[in-house]
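Q: Convert this sequence to structure tokens.
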Amino acid sequence: MKARDTLGRSLAPEREYGRPTLGRTGGSYALIVSRTRCNSCSFVSILVWRHAFTLIELLTVIAILGLLAGLVLAALSTAQGRAHQIACVSNLKQFGVALQLYANDHDDRLPPNADGREEALGTKWVEGWLGLPGPDCTNTLFLRRSVIGPYLPEVRVWRCPSAEPVTVAGITQARVRTVALNCFMGSPVTSPAARTYIRLADVTQPSPSEAITFVEERVETINDGSFALQWDFDPSLPRRWVLRDKPGVLHRNGATLTFADGHVEEHRWKDNRTIAPPRNDALMSGNADVLWMQNHSTRRANSQ
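A:
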């Protein structure tokens, strides 16, 4: 029934159209708002037409979701890498403490550190040959009976959490050790070219805060427990510098190192040849990383 005034005349409703909030023809929704007014009331009607997504819109949504997933995965990977790095620092810190305790209990002597495959416990601080996948790579017994084993009750501290597992006899397990001891520390070798250290008090040049003890080593070269460096190194002949055992690069192209005073550092390598080296001993002419390791491992007879 139409509305009428007091004289009985019909009143035509006033109609206003609100601005559409969404009215594009190719969109997912079309929204039209209309308002009807009379003397005593007003009506608002909303009409929504729903349309299917276009192919371009679907592809856009999928691309955005893929981008977000990539960002989330990258953030998780970064967080995991940082967590592994923190754990590795904690592990090497325990090795620094273990060395101090061992020296206190053994007349200030450093752990014996002969290199090679055949030498038995007593001439070297830890047994096992881990260079190639084999039973030693997963044998925790060698770690438990190491001369510093009593000071390291948990075998998990012997390896970096970022190290790849090893497959032996068809079974994949965690590699048990990624830690080696600077070859000049506790070495039975006497050399005119470099100084070796039998007691902790002997470590004066370099100073205890600068002298490397335990090194996080690459799994490709970690064979025995001694971290091999060039014995006949001459700082004045950079064309003859050699990189023997390879330091780890799992933490942003760097390794975790322990020093003779017990503190731990994360050191990043600068030369790409250190980061991606060949497996065997390699000539590394002018490699600044080789020079840094040598300067922090022993004192040379020809040093000034």
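Helices lie at 55-105, 141-144, 272-275, 288-295.
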